[in-house]
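Page 37, continued from 36.
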């Protein structure tokens, strides 16, 4: 089984160089703008406990080290924990934004390396199924950030609930996190299947977390890629792996990003490679060039 790496995908896109950019890249004067839109990346999983939130937090930190302006949106509404992992205390969170009590700018907190964090609410049942009005409120608030960020990493919940589907649909890019555990692999396949068959998502990239070595990671990828190839006729991409590392557990106990306090740890080196790959990619722009229009299209198409 051949591994479809991000580097290979980048190489294939060279054929598209020289084409006229999407209309959304035109400035008010008619000139092409060099600035790309915010890259909104959902970091998701079929099963909890695979280290998804840790990966989101550390990738944001490492992207910031690469001079990228990054924000983490904790979209695990109802069971949020990125504030716990990073030791962040905030009097306000996503709940207050969605209910119109606070503006998003008043809710954002600064994390390690200058990254921005939008904490979510924990233990609030109504947050587990956002209404159409709440989703539109979030779109309006996020659209304000269109010129101040390079990346928004959406830390989704696990599974295939309506909220998880919504945030995966709202993101232009999807990174699925799994581990070698059989149940994690099975649930990752189920998540991909639902997003592909019901929501027409076609591009998925995989991070295999908590592996003993690169060989184990590639074996996990090949098993999942074989399933998607055979049953869905869908090719997934291998983005990278993160080694099983006691320093990660130690960083969680300290409520710090492992990349911040252990820059030379094996897990950090793995995450740094992934961040470098993501940062250096030449990705296609949003066809409409605007977050608000893209998200409104998603809501209109999927939320009734």
């Amino acid at each position: 089984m051949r591994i479809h790496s991000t580097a290979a995908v980048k190489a294939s896109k060279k054929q598209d160089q020289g084409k006229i950019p999407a209309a959304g890249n035109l400035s008010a004067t008619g000139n092409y703008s060099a600035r790309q839109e915010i890259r909104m990346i959902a970091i998701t999983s079929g099963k909890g406990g695979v280290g998804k939130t840790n990966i989101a937090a550390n990738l944001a930190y490492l992207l910031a080290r690469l001079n990228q302006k990054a924000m983490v949106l904790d979209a695990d509404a109802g069971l949020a924990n990125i504030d716990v992992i990073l030791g962040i205390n905030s009097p306000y969170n996503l709940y207050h934004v969605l209910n119109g009590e606070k503006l998003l700018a008043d809710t954002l907190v600064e994390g390690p390396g200058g990254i921005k964090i939008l904490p979510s609410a924990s233990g609030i049942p109504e947050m587990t199924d956002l209404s159409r009005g709440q989703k539109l409120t979030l779109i309006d608030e996020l659209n304000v950030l269109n010129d101040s960020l390079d990346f928004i990493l959406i830390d989704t919940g696990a599974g295939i609930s309506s909220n998880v589907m919504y945030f995966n649909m709202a993101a232009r890019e999807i990174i699925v996190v799994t581990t070698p555990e059989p149940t994690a692999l099975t649930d990752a396949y189920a998540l991909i299947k639902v997003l592909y068959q019901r929501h027409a998502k076609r591009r998925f990239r995989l991070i295999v977390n908590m592996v003993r070595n690169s060989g184990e990671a590639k074996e996990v990828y090949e098993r999942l890629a074989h399933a998607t190839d055979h049953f869905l006729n869908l090719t997934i991409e291998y983005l990278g792996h993160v080694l099983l590392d006691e320093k990660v557990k130690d960083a969680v106990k300290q409520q710090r990003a492992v990349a911040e306090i252990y820059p030379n740890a094996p897990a950090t080196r793995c995450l740094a490679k992934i961040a470098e790959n993501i940062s250096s990619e030449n990705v296609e722009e949003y066809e409409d060039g605007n977050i608000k229009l893209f998200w409104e299209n998603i809501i209109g198409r999927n939320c009734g």
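The domain at 38-294 is CATH 3.40.50.300 (Rossmann fold). Flag for discussion at group meeting. The chain has one domain: 38-294.
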